[in-house]
Amino acid sequence: MSMHDDHDAEQVPVGPPDGATTATAEAGDHDTRFFGQPWALAHVFGVEMWERFSFYGMQGILLLYMYYTVAEGGLGIDQAVATGIVGAYGGAVYLSTILGAWVADRLLGSERVLFYSAIVIMAGHVALALLPSVWGLGIGLVLVAVGSGGLKANATSVVGTLYGAKDTRRDAGFSLFYLGINLGAFFGPLVTGWLQSSVGFHWGFGAAAVGMALGLLQYSFGRKQLPEQARIVPNPLPRDRRVLFAGIGLGGVVVVVALVLAGVIRADNLAGIVILVTLAAAIAYFFVILASRHISGDERSRVFGFIPLFIVNVGFWSLYQQQFTVLTVYSDQRLDRMIGDWEMPVPWINSINPIFIIILSGVFAAIWTRLGSRQPSTPVKFALGAIIMGCAFLLFLPFAGGGPNSTPLLAIIGILLVFTIAELFISPVGLSASTKLAPERFHTQMVALYFLSVALGTAIAGWLAQFYDPENEVPYFTVLGLIAIALGAALLVAVRPVLKLMRGVR
């Protein structure tokens, strides 16, 4: 689970537009009612916290709901197919961030997209809670994926509008916003996991819907206090072109529905389709940027320098996002979750990572600040993140072949600590690197490329999980662990040429 890409400070606008001095913006510069921050931050903090509560709460029980038998309250979907669906869904969330950013930039502005996205997310959780069968699952996941992508793409931008360009509280404000993300991610699986194990899956999905409703209710009352800049449409789509784009969007939906009805898009190949679509989109983005006549030689070189980082990032997320696929299956079938006479619900494992993130993110920030210009360069951080992630997979090997309920809980806690350390080497610098290396005319597209690398890795995580066999784990963890280590080692060897391509960016 990566929370860091939600709050990168470099990619968001700051202050009011040129020449604007709205009363709201001026008040925001001096308001200190929310822990020394503008009071309007409390509303975005709240909607983001509850959105993460609902998102990770639902994610914690989603895979179990799919592959548990009908008698156990699930849908009885084949386990390999179910893990592929989870990966495809996760990839679709990150793909949707590109759509959410486009709608904000061309049609509605970030604040409105955030508000409407929260409504769509809540509707998705309601569908999962109330609609039976696979159709309820499909409708719910599509709505949550589209809504989460829209909210994820725009919440950060809205927070950025609360601060003037010279406001020294800005970084602290984003840190507080980031705390809200992790609080939601921590409590979501605890609540939904307890409800699922006590009274059933649909109660867990219902709790996710209630959580999103609470966030939406708070935000509905507070959104008027946000500065006018949050509602500005930076690059409005001309009215005479809106019908054309609406037709393209509707046509796309019709094609997808037709492919589903024709059996071309199926549950068992969904992850593969998302992988191909994401890969095609990434190649197209790279081609458009590199072929442009409007970028300088230095800018083109930096885009080439981003390619090795993109590849390593895909490899990292392909392993890291298996927290929601393989690790869920492992926790259900292999982990000893007994504490005395009480058995911990499986989804509670997903609450371990946010605790480590909250504790260690400040430690890492202090280390990088203390090292200053002596801290590792971006390619070195990416390489170390991939190597450490590979080592985390190898740490499963001592417990391979132990049978049901044989892996100690402390072992998984230790492995997840290594997951978190790997994440802190690579995730906080991902969006930052994309913005630093972006040509002036393609700032948004480079950010989109970063999200595409996460989408691609997440979809691959679901596709890979079909090869996990609890009866023969050694090949799976060994091969994937060594591939990640090899990717990181290759980037370490290539640090100098990559830095040369990056033309002064570290």
TrEMBL record:
GO BP field: oligopeptide transport
Transmembrane segments: 53-70, 82-104, 113-131, 137-164, 176-195, 201-222, 243-265, 271-291, 303-320, 348-368, 380-401, 407-426, 447-468, 474-499
One CC-aspect GO term: plasma membrane
Region (Disordered): 1-25
Extent of Basic and acidic residues compositional bias: 1-10
Membrane topology note: Multi-pass membrane protein
One Pfam family recorded for the sequence: PTR2
InterPro entries in the record: Dipep/tripep_permease, MFS_dom, MFS_trans_sf, MFS_Transporters, POT_fam, PTR2_symporter_CS
Molecular-function GO terms, alphabetical: peptide transmembrane transporter activity
CDD domains: MFS_DtpA_like
Classification via PROSITE patterns: MFS, PTR2_2
Highest taxon, organism lineage: Bacteria
Compartment(s) of residence: Cell membrane; Membrane
Major facilitator superfamily (MFS) profile domain mapped to chain residues: 44-506
Key words, A-Z: Cell membrane, Membrane, Transmembrane, Transmembrane helix, Transport
Main localization of the protein described in the UniProt heading: membrane
PANTHER family: PROTON-DEPENDENT OLIGOPEPTIDE FAMILY TRANSPORT PROTEIN, RESISTANCE PROTEIN MDTM, PUTATIVE-RELATED-RELATED
NCBIfam families in the cross-refs: yjdL_sub1_fam
Record-stated family: Belongs to the major facilitator superfamily. Proton-dependent oligopeptide transporter (POT/PTR) (TC 2.A.17) family.
Full protein name: POT family proton-dependent oligopeptide transporter
